[in-house]
Structures are given as structure tokens and as C-alpha cells.
Amino acid sequence: MYNGIGLRTARGSGTNGYVQRNLSSIRPRDAPLAPPQEKARIFEPDQRILDHERKRKIEIQCIELQDELEEQGLPDVEIEARVDALRARLRERQDAVRPSHQETKNLRPSDTHALGAAKKLEREKMERALRIRPDYIEGEAFSPEIQERRKMERKEERARLHEEAEARREQRLAERAERAERDVRDVPFPYDMVLPLAQRKNPGVICLFDVDGTLTPARQTVSPEMIDVLKKLRDYTATGFVGGSDLDKIREQLQLPGAEDCTCEADAVLEDFDYGFAENGLTAYRMGKKLPSESFINWLGEEKYKKLVKFVLAYISKLDLPIMRGTFVEFRRGMVNVSPIGRNASIQERIDFQNYDNEHHIRRDFVEALKKEFPDYGLTYSIGGQISFDVFPEGWDKTFALQHLQETDDVLPGGYKEIHFFGDKTFKGGNDYEIFSHPRVIGHTVTSPEDTMKQLHELFFA
């Protein structure tokens, strides 16, 4: 034991006599955390002083230009005009451009307001990056009362937005129900409104129309003018469309722009026609009622179909085209549609490919390769539209639709005596050629929907 320090043990002192702090001892806090204070005051630059400084710099440059022009001996009028133009340019540039980092770095310590403005921009940028609210107060995250109040405010805001969304939804449903009720009440079914076939001005005459390039531009919507002409034509003859696409695509094209899609079978597309033939007539409608249909896959068989598709995809993979998109083979009920560029191409890309194909004959050579590879399949290949060609059994071209033009004597005595067909691909190899050249049909070649309307006026309305 030394100077009263240490413990008495059998071996003497148990310590070395050096006194240390007890670092494991924690003293209680003298006071609780201070409540969050108001947002600290931040130096705000005086905008008037900043504007004055900017104007001063502009005037210095204007004076320098004026002195230079006076030394050159230019007239006062020209000097004044050039100085005014420079002043306007400098003001416009200062209003549009924030001070750069280098300009801020070159500021003098005495430029307190300019430094404050640059610091303010930097602070706002940091707040946006960290998503700090403008009303944030330092220390409020440690205040249970403030956090609970903000939690309730967020909950009330979500409830308010939910109620507004529900109110808008109920209003839309009510308007939709009212519109549907009004349509059902005020608009009778169209086939009750049109003249019976036997009472039209030219009974026994029917006009059939291709879709792409005849009633509408390729893969675009029909115009209101064409709809009006077709409605007027039904007072003179029976009408029908014959398209190679499926009914969904034809419905999309032949409705008025902005019209709501219909889910019923006899929808807005078929209301304007007495007959509707999709997929060359394999999907057929008469007066809005569906007729029996056929299937390409049942006719050809699964094994032959797989060989055909594999050859098509292999051939396309070897093509070197400027661009290629998606959906190169589209299976339909009565045919297969093949597109070397892909059916997902935009309208402009379709136009570009058509011009490219006219020069390089991509589709024509493709068809010849298929004929050579599958001579015993009994298939017909028909080039149509802008980007594709159809593959279907012999006899399943657009003439397939003619078998549905059978009317009983009580509906149309004597049946149809004249069948007019209007199409744009009426050349040999085009998908309108077979029906255009059929002995029962009077064919009309058109170049555009406008040409179709012109020929109808000359034939029936003149």
C-alpha cells in the first residue's frame, strides 16, 4: 500500500497507484432535447442591387462599343442604333442564362449580394436533389407531435384524393349509362332504317369494295366524306366490303375517327353495309348476321403449315432490307399474311418499303420462291397492300365471297343481276385480280378513296 492507495493482499498492493476515469459510467442528461426551432434565417440577396449591378455591366460594354465606333468616325445615328442593339442582346442573354460556375467563382468578397444569389441557387439545387420540402424546419424529425400531425395530414390528403377519384369514376359511369340508354332509345337498329333490297333505285345491283386503297388509305381510317357517299349509295344499290384482313382490323379502319369501339357482332362497321366479307369472305356477314365460315389450318393440315412457316421465316432471315420490324407472319382464319418488313411498321415505313419494293421486287421474288418450294400445296399467292402478300388455298381469293350473294325471291326477285367491284390491286398478281376479272363481276380499277367516290358519282348519282 502506498500513500493510502491500493488494497491489502497477501502479496501487497493490487494496483499501481495510478487513478483513471471510469469510461463506462454514463451520466444522466441535464435537460431533454430542445424543441425544433423556427427555420433559420438565411441571408437573402437584394434583387434591386443585383439588377443594378447587371445594368451597370451592360452599360459598361455599351460605352466601350460607343467609344470604339466614335473612333472609327461612324455617324451618330448608326452608333446609337448599334449600341441599342447590343444593349437589347445583353439584356436578353442575362434574362435567359444563369451565371456560370466560373463567373460565380470569380466574384469578389465584396459582391455579397451576387454571392448570396449564387448560394441560393446552389441551396435550391441541393434541396431538389435531396427532396427537402420548402417548409422543412431543422429538428422536426425528432418531434413526435410534429410527426404525428404530418402523418394525419398525409392520411387526410390521401382520403380526399380517393374521394375525388371515386366521384369522377361514378360520374363517368353515370354519363356512359345515360349515353347508352339514349342511344338505345333514340337510335333504332340500322337495318330497320334502310330500304329493303327490292325497293332500292337499282334493285338487283350490288357494289363490293376493297378496303385498303379503295375505301381508306392503307391501314388508315375512313373519311367522313366516304361514309356519307356509302350511306347515299344504299338508296341506289346493295353494298358490301371484301377485305383480306380480319374483321377487327377492318372495323378499326371503317369506323368514323374517334368513334367508340363496339363489342356487338353487328357493330358500326357492318351497319353501313348490307354485306361484310373479312378474310376474303371466310368470315362473312349478311345484314349484320354471321354466316358459316371456313378455316385455312383445317384445310392445309398442321404439318404442311409448319413447313410453310419455317420456310417463310428462313427466307426473311436472309433478306437485307433497310429496316425490319415485327410480326412477319400473321395467321388468319382463311389465309396466312406474310410481310418481309413486318406488320408493326409505321405508316411512313410502309410507304418507304412500298417504294423500295417497286424498285427491287422483294415480294414478287418471295412469291416465286414459295411457288417453287411448294408446287403441290394448291396455294395461291396474292400481293396486296403496301408491305405484305396473302397465302391461301386456290379458290379462296376474294371470289370466295361471291357464293354468299344468294338472295331468295321474296327478298330480291331474280337475285343480283349486276355485281360491281371496286379495287386498287386489280393487276395480275394483285389481291383484287381474281374477283376483278371474274365473269360475273363488272370490275372498276381505282387509284385512291377519292377516285372511288368520283366513279360512284359518275355511275349512280349523275
TrEMBL record:
Involved in the synthesis of the GDP-mannose and dolichol-phosphate-mannose required for a number of critical mannosyl transfer reactions. The active site is at D210, D212. The gene is PMM1. Its EC number is 5.4.2.8. One of its GO terms (biological process) is protein N-linked glycosylation. Belongs to the eukaryotic PMM family. This is Phosphomannomutase. Mg(2+) binds at D210, D212, D424, F436. Residues 50-95 form the CWF21 domain. It catalyses: alpha-D-mannose 1-phosphate = D-mannose 6-phosphate. Residues 1-36, 149-178 are annotated as: Disordered. Transmembrane segments: none annotated. Homodimer. PANTHER family: PHOSPHOMANNOMUTASE (PTHR10466). CDD domains: cwf21_CWC21-like (cd21372), HAD_PMM (cd02585). It comes from Malassezia brasiliensis. Its cofactor is Mg(2+). The keyword Cytoplasm applies. It comes from the Eukaryota. GO terms for cellular component: cytosol; nucleus. Residues 12-25 have a biased composition (Polar residues). InterPro entries: HAD-like_sf (IPR036412), HAD-SF_hydro_IIB (IPR006379), HAD_sf (IPR023214), mRNA_splic_Cwf21_dom (IPR013170), PMM (IPR005002), PMM_cap (IPR043169). Pathway: Nucleotide-sugar biosynthesis; GDP-alpha-D-mannose biosynthesis; alpha-D-mannose 1-phosphate from D-fructose 6-phosphate: step 2/2. Pfam families: cwf21, PMM. GO terms for molecular function: metal ion binding; phosphomannomutase activity.
